[in-house]
UniProtKB/TrEMBL annotation:
Transmembrane domains' residue ranges: none
Protein name (Swiss-Prot/TrEMBL): Glycoside hydrolase family 13 protein
Keywords: Glycoprotein, Hydrolase
Organism: Cutibacterium porci
An example Gene Ontology molecular-function term: alpha-amylase activity
Family indicated by similarity: Belongs to the glycosyl hydrolase 13 family.
Keyword Hydrolase: yes
Matching SUPFAM superfamilies: (Trans)glycosidases
Length: 557
């Protein structure tokens, strides 16, 4: 590593770019993105001005759930490359001053994991079965599932197996796809195996882990039924499926492992939790001896409305402060409708009482893309001005919309099948990134079809095209990120709300920074000589600039 970033606590203010490896860039012309493709385009991320990348799972996997079905936690999917490629990526990213976070999937493995195959081959009650959650079924012949828990992807969370002797047998738990059996976190083997996985990657130089579904893993003992009328929702408070007290000791154990690396040149390693939970529950994970940081999805969930965002921001900051943690802000990721399209919907807020519903609620409703684009530009100005860290999902920097018209036969998300073709799932935000050229596949090889088809009207949104346009999303993102690095008021810290009308968010940060976002019909007048950046070119009269509806501005105060 030539120059390694060393600031401790870097995660408190970092801007992290999410790479979805299958869709980022393809180096070997097979239509699937890969690690060499990421290496070849690290210059795009360095020029963008982010501090770190988070790479969605790159492990060997049958890809039943986009790689969130891991069959070997200590290797690389051959479609993506080799361990040597991963090492090269980490060291080349570090040389550019970029940290690297990878994805840990601890709630479940793939059914192709050797330990699950061992479990299927072993007898009920064996140590091999105890690494997963096997139970006898209910009913005279065990023909009914052990309880009424539903899978996030639709249908029951239980699957019956055929025992090695050919008879119908026990059931195993799978919160997600049937091919993703849940680990049993009461098994010492599982605990020790994940310690080994963490050390394996920390020793190779990765800076941290994103913990997939960090509020699952541990289930209430006895696996009690949900009340008949309960939604599967992760946000609905007490549930035997989610957010159990037994998570705390696991998080403390992992924190101790990350802290063991404090004396290395890179400093201690970090964790970011993925957990769709209300603030008060979420921030318990961020107590000083537990995890470092967490995605705060409240911004993503909020409708494009001043009152809703104001409440979300105020409550988020207070909750994080109560445990001494820094907040983060998220507009999108590989599971959610892209912001440009979401903000162009009549109802832009998400209903997370059912975690599989958010994308379903948007499919098939009209999108005002022009309005969505305007709002998404203002939204990132708000996001990057708030205290704490921020996440950018690949393509947000280009203003890519959701691809809402993928043909049925192109869909990969297991949600599509498991919902009986009622929920089109999350493929629309996972379409490959357009790099260059005027027609699909935009810089991907024409020799192979990209794994998801690319739209024909994306010529304007390629990296190449946006680089040449000073009014593009890319130009805006670069300006904001450069300012964020240079301006001591931005990143971790505090903010103060200024008096403003109900339809305006107006806040200051010290030293000398002010952000205004206008959600309403009445223009907000500002001193044009103090403008640092604006989401669109503001209409200006003498030294007065007007911030219109769905526009934002950063000012020197
Ligand atoms: C990931 C999803 C995945 C699920 C199961 C998540 O929350 O972000 O993409 O389907 O976990 O692993």
């Amino acid at each position: 590593m030539t120059s390694s970033p060393t600031t401790n606590d870097w995660w408190t203010s970092a801007v992290v770019y999410q790479v979805y490896p299958r869709s980022f860039a393809d180096s070997n012309a097979d239509g699937i993105g890969d690690i060499r493709g990421i290496i070849d385009h690290l210059d795009h991320l360095a020029a963008l001005g982010v501090d770190a990348l988070w790479i969605s799972p790159w492990y060997p996997s049958p890809m039943a759930d986009g790689g969130y079905d891991v069959s070997d936690y200590c290797d690389i999917n051959p479609d993506f490359g080799t361990l040597a490629d991963a090492d090269a990526l980490v060291s080349q990213a570090h040389a550019l001053g970029l940290r690297v976070i990878i994805d840990l999937v601890p709630n479940h493995s793939s059914q192709e994991h050797p330990w699950f195959k061992d479990a299927l081959a072993a007898a009920p009650g064996s140590m091999e079965r105890d690494r997963y959650i096997f139970r006898d079924g209910q009913g005279d012949n065990g023909e009914f599932p052990p309880n009424n828990w539903p899978s996030v992807f639709g249908g029951s969370a239980w699957q019956r197996v055929t025992e090695p002797n050919g008879t119908p047998g026990q059931w195993y738990l799978h919160f997600f796809d049937v091919s993703q059996p849940d680990w049993n976190w009461e098994s010492p083997d599982v605990l020790e195996e994940f310690d080994r996985v963490l050390r394996f990657w920390f020793d190779r130089g990765v800076d941290g882990f994103r913990i997939d579904v960090a509020n699952s893993m541990v289930k209430e003992s006895g696996l009690p039924d949900l009340p008949d009328d309960a939604a599967i929702g992760e946000l609905v408070g007490d549930s035997p499926m989610w957010d159990q007290p037994g998570l705390a000791p696991i998080q403390r154990r992992w924190r101790a492992i990350a802290d063991d690396y404090a004396d290395t040149p890179q400093g201690p390693r970090m964790f970011v939790a993925e957990a769709y939970l209300p603030h008060d529950r979420l921030v318990r994970y961020l107590e000083p001896d537990r995890l470092h940081t967490s995605f705060n999805f409240e911004f993503l969930i909020s409708a494009w409305k001043a009152s809703s965002l104001r409440t979300t921001i105020t409550e988020s900051l207070a909750a994080h402060e109560s445990v001494g943690a820094s907040a983060t802000w998220v507009l999108g990721n590989h599971d959610n409708f892209r912001p440009v399209s979401r903000y162009g919907k009549e109802i832009s807020g998400l209903d997370f009482s059912n975690p599989s519903a958010p994308h379903a609620q948007f499919h098939g409703t009209p999108t005002d893309v022009a309005r969505g684009r305007l709002r998404a530009r203002a939204a990132v100005m708000l996001e990057l001005a708030l205290p704490g860290g921020a996440y950018i999902y690949q393509g947000e920097e280009l203003g890519l919309p959701e691809v809402e018209d993928l043909p049925d036969e192109a869909l990969h998300d297991p949600t599509w099948e498991r919902s009986g073709h009622t929920d089109r799932g999350r493929d629309g935000c996972r379409v490959p990134l357009p790099w260059s050229g005027c027609a699909a596949p935009y810089g991907w090889s024409a020799n192979a079809n990209t794994w998801l088809p690319m739209p024909n009207n994306w010529a304007e949104w390629t990296v190449e095209s946006e680089q040449q346009d000073s009014t593009s999303f890319l130009a805006l993102y670069r300006t904001l990120l450069a300012e964020r690095r240079a301006n001591p008021a931005l990143g971790a810290g505090t903010m103060t709300w200024n008096e403003s009308g109900d339809e305006v968010l107006d806040f200051s940060r010290e030293p000398g920074f002010r952000c205004i976002v206008n959600f309403g019909g009445e223009d907000v007048a500002v001193d044009a000589t103090t403008v640092i950046a604006s989401s669109v070119t503001l209409s200006t009269h003498g030294t007065t600039a007007l911030v219109g509806r769905d526009q934002a501005v950063w000012l020197r105060a």
